[in-house]
Design a protein that fits this description.
Elements lengths: L2 H18 L3 H46 L4 E2 L5 E5 L5 E5 L7 H13 L7 H29 L2 H32 L45 H9 L2 H21 L3 H13 L6 H10 L3 H12 L9 H14 L16 E5 L4 H12 L3 E6 L6 H4 L2 E4 L8 H12 L3 E4 L5 H4 L3 H7 L2 E2 L4 H8 L1 H11 L6 E2 L2 H4 L6 E5 L9 E3 L5 H7 L3 E5 L4 E9 L5 E13 L2 E7 L3 H14 L3 E9 L5 E7 L6 H6 L4 H10 L15 E3 L9 H8 L3
Parallel strand pairs: 4-5, 4-7, 5-6, 7-8
Antiparallel strand pairs: 1-2, 2-3, 9-12, 10-11, 10-12, 13-14, 13-16, 14-15, 15-18, 16-17
Amino acid sequence: MTLVARRLDHALHDRARRRLVPSGTARRRQLVIVEMMLAVAGCIAGYTLFIDWARHFEVRVCEQIILAMGVDRISAALGDSFIVFGPGFEPVTAQMTGSCSILSSVLALAALAVIVLRERSQVLLGFVVASVFVLAANQVRLVLSLLAGRYFAVDALVFFHDWIGAVINFAYTLIGLLIMIGMTMYDAQRAEQDHTGRHTADRPEAWARPGLGHRVPLDDDDAPKAPKVQVAAFLHRKILPRALSVRLARRRERTRVDYRVGHENADRRAAIVRELAAKGLGVHTATLLAVATHETDIGVLDALADAVAARQWEPVANADVVALRLWARAWLMRTPAVDVDFVPESGRLIAVTGAGGPAGVAVIQALQKAGDAVLALDANPDGVGLRLATHSAVLPRADQPGYAESLLSILAEHRPGALVCTVAEEYHALTPLVGHLDELGVRTWLPDPASAETCLDKIAFATALHAAGVPHPATAWTADTAGLVPGPWVVKPARGRGSRDVVLVDNPADLPHAFFSVPGAIVQTRLAGQEFTADALVARDGRMVACVPRWRDETRGGISVRGTTFASATVTEVVAATLRAVGHSGPANVQGFVDFTGAVTIVEVNPRFSGGLPLTLAAGADVVSAYVAGILDPAAEMPGLEFQPGVRMARYFSEVFYTSSSLEMVGAAR
């Protein structure tokens, strides 16, 4: 049989097979035709059923708009038409026809949504937004047409509605279509996708070229075809200047990170990087290189370096894979700045924020006494705790730009096992970083953000205690209600610390001046009796494992300088009820008064360690070690802590000396 005969026989068999079994393309074409016919039928049926209702609805909406504008001589009393009295009071009836309604546009959008875009979950929202836009635009068209007839002439109404209105109709229909398509086609994962949202570039692991020199025999019919001309490649290689081509390539790689990885949080980005690397460094090399170039999160970069290092057995596919491996090697060879002359007894390094405050200093000394090394962190370069710790670094304030980046960079360099925060105002900045800290292996234990906010906001705190029935002084935070609070009074900021801007008032005439002179002021009844502070530690399940009350025998600047521990079941019960009311977990110090009858009234809660913490530690309740143990092992049950009543504390000044060069060194750490 000749070659021509074989070709003819093959073609006849192929044509017969196609007649018997329709191809997938033919079946898809038939399904598309059926869907189009159903869409047309649905539009016709919807128009027939709802056109009268739509006309009346749009007339009512337009009537309300005109009434709101205060325009007279336009009436919608006919229900589906308007009566317009022109400048000479000549009446004309403007009928709301079917072509003036938005129903046809809305039905077209619905058909597109159902037939073409139905597999995307956001199509309903896109359809609703587009329909609302079409309705609003059509109302603008109707109102302008009626106003033209009212103020100019009847001919102006007809001209505006038939000509300018037609252009507006076309424009808002097209814009509504684009709105729906734009809202529907968007996907958070913007890689190469088909119409169902699948990543066509996400090739399976089994997709590989035949190896070991294997060749598939080719018949004459399967001869290789000439490669298609790639316009983008031709432009980059032949037309565009080299510098511009490189710049566009870099921009494309930055976008590659965004459409596949960048829209996720850090934990998810790290997981995606591991998944992409597991499919082969030669498969998603461009994305992995873009992550190594543009990613800023330390945890994600660690995950990428580990994933690349785990695939050293993989053959080198190209120069980009070599560059990726060299980057991973350099990243993993980073050595944290560790003082080799100091080895902590516990083998642990604990980071402490707020190292310049009394609470931070107390925590640092307690950790060092337990044999831990400490990484002291503070925003003040002269913070004394920076000189007491093994390692130290200066951070920006938590409310300043760069705080998160500086903190994560320092923690990535030193890799402490836990982070203890002694500044409650830093919680709002630390809470979003918990996932990043876990990636670095730094554990922490932060209170619930809502609970911390309740404690820091004295208005919310007073409301919470009142709702829980916990004794609390009468509180007002408006000028109208300040006079209703029984005196004598204490006026203080709703958000403040350290007894700053606190004003004591005895004369009612001085109360308004004090209220308006204190920023964000609240007014409370000044309590009588003996003031106390209770250092408490609440487990994650809400159980209070430690409560050490102490009398505030003498205070300076809001810090206790002389105190005495005491035991009181009543105080302990009220403290526990207070912490339950605000939903707090972790360390806290609760301040209040005990009057001459023994009644306990709570003034405030600081969701952190207190400045008088050394007295609690000296009384035998090691709340710092218990708290760090709870950080490192969240599942472990925290035992109750006992303390010795009657232990007294008297504070004295102690000097720490350092040179300007050491200050510059600490300040330059970050």
